Amino acid sequence: MKEIIYPVRVEFGHCDPAGIIWYPNFFHWIDSASRYFFEQCGVPTWAETTRTMGVIGTPIVDTKAKFLKTATYGENLGIHTSIPEWREKSFVLRYVVRRVNKDGSVDDIMEAEDVRIFAIKREDGKNGIRAVPIPPSIKVLCE
Amino acid sequence: MKEIIYPVRVEFGHCDPAGIIWYPNFFHWIDSASRYFFEQCGVPTWAETTRTMGVIGTPIVDTKAKFLKTATYGENLGIHTSIPEWREKSFVLRYVVRRVNKDGSVDDIMEAEDVRIFAIKREDGKNGIRAVPIPPSIKVLCE
Amino acid sequence: MKEIIYPVRVEFGHCDPAGIIWYPNFFHWIDSASRYFFEQCGVPTWAETTRTMGVIGTPIVDTKAKFLKTATYGENLGIHTSIPEWREKSFVLRYVVRRVNKDGSVDDIMEAEDVRIFAIKREDGKNGIRAVPIPPSIKVLCE
Amino acid sequence: MKEIIYPVRVEFGHCDPAGIIWYPNFFHWIDSASRYFFEQCGVPTWAETTRTMGVIGTPIVDTKAKFLKTATYGENLGIHTSIPEWREKSFVLRYVVRRVNKDGSVDDIMEAEDVRIFAIKREDGKNGIRAVPIPPSIKVLCE
C-alpha cells in the first residue's frame, strides 16, 4: 500500500488564542494531502481526467477524525496518506498527522479517515454530480 | 433538549473552484456554533469560567461528519446545535447544517457530531490540559 | 454616497495566539462586504450580470489598509462600506471596520481602500479577463 | 539587503469559484513569510525574545498591495521577502510573490509592503502593547 507524506509547516496564523493549531486547519491540510497523494502516484490532474474520462475530482462523502495531541507553530508535520480500502464506487483515504520532534521521537497528532468518490457531472440534464465506478487506470497507480 | 441555531451566510470566498463550499469551512462554522451554543444557553465566557472554576474551554476529542448536499454562495445556512449525550468527563455536540430554500423547503446539507471535554490546566507542573467531570452548573443550563 | 454595513461576529477561531484578530481575516470580511454592498444596493448577482452584460465580478487591483486598534472574540464589528470614487474603468471601495462597545462608544479598528474593476472574459481567444467601462446601470444603484 | 524566499504550493482550497487564488490567502502567506524571514536571518523565536528583551513580535501597522497577475492551484510560488527600510521605531517589509513557470520564465503575481513594529507589553498597567526602538541585535542580523 502506497504511503505519501504531505509536509506542513505550522505557522503562527494556524494557531488559536490557546496557542495551538485551530482544528479546522487540519482539514485544510488533509484536503491538500488527498490531492497530493494522487499527484505523487502519477495520476493526471483533474483538469486532464475531466477531458479524458469525465472525472472532475474526488468529493468527500464523510469523514471521521481523532485529535490525539496538540501542536503549535514552529513545528513541522507530515501527513501520512494512503488508501487502505477500495469499494465499488467509493474509497477510503487514511491520514496520520505526525510530528518529528527535535530529539528524533515521533508523535501522532491527529488521525482521520474520509470516504470519497470519483465524480462526473450528471448527464441527465440535472444539476450536480454522481459517482462512477473506481477507474482501474487510477487505482493501479495508487495501490 | 435545547437546540440553538447559529446563522451562516455563505460567501464567495467560502467556495472552491467547483463553486461549492470548500468543506473545511464547515468546521470553521461548527467550532463557532459550539461556542455560540453555550453563550445562548447562558454559560459565562471561558475567560470568566477560567477565573471561577478553572475551566478554560471545550477542546475537541474527535469528530465525525457526513456531507449530504452541496451549497454555494448567496445561500443562508443555520447550524442546529444541541448536546444529545452527557458522559462523566465528556459530552457529545450534534450539528445539523440546514438550508432554507426560497420556496420554503429545507435541505440538510451536512451533519456532524463531535466529542468534547471541559478542560482545565494540569496542576502537576506538566504542560497541557486535562478533562474534569462535567460541571453541574454548566450542564443545567444546556439541557 | 450610500454606506452599507456588513456585520461580523468575531469568533475564537479568527484570533491568533496573541488573542487578537489575525489580520488576514479582515480581508476575508472585506471581500464579503464588497459583494454585500452591491447586493444591498440592488445590483443583481454576478451570475445574472454574466448573462445580461458579461460582467463576471469585481476583481481587486490593489489595496491599502491601516490597523488602528486590536479586537478580539466575542466582539461585534460592522464593516462600513461605500464607493467614494468612480473612475472610467475602475472604482474605489472604502471600508471602515468599527466596533460598538458595551458602553456605547465606538472604535475604528481598521480601515482600508481597494481599487476594483468590473471584469468580463477576454473575447480575443486569450485566457483571462479585462476591465470594461463602469456600467451605468450598476453605478446608478450604488451612488 | 538580505532576501529570503518563502515557498508556497497553491492548493485547490486556496482558490475561489473563479478558479484563481482568493486574494486574502496572499496575506496568510505574507504573514508567514514575515516570520520566516526573521527565522532564516537567525533571529530567535518571539518566545525567546520575550524572555530576553520583552519583544513579543512584530504586529502590522499598515499594508499596501498590488495584484498583478492571477495564479491557480498546482502552481508553486516564492514570496521574496526583504526589509528595504528601517525607521526609528518601525520598519518596512517588502514582499514580491513570484511564480516560476514550466518554461523557466518568471511572473510577478503580487507585491506588497507593510509597516511593522517591534512590540512589548505596556508597563503602565494599561492593557495593550507599544513600539520600542528597533533592537540593534535584531537589525544587524537582517540587513
Level of helix content of chain A? 10-25%
> N-to-C SSE series of chain A?
EHHEEEEEEH
Strand content of chain A: 35-45%
Uncertain runs of chain A with pLDDT below 50, 5 residues or more?
none
Biggest sheet architecture of chain A = 5 strands, antiparallel
The CATH class assignment of chain A is Alpha Beta
- The named CATH superfamily of chain A: Hotdog Thioesterase
Which pair of chains forms the biggest interface, and how many residues does each contribute? A-B, 21 and 21 residues
DSSP summary: helix tally of chain A: 3
Kindly list the characteristics that best describe this protein.
alpha+beta; elongated; Thiol Ester Dehydrase, Chain A; 3 helices; two-stranded antiparallel ribbon; 7 strands; 143 residues; 5-stranded antiparallel β-sheet; homotetramer; 38% strand
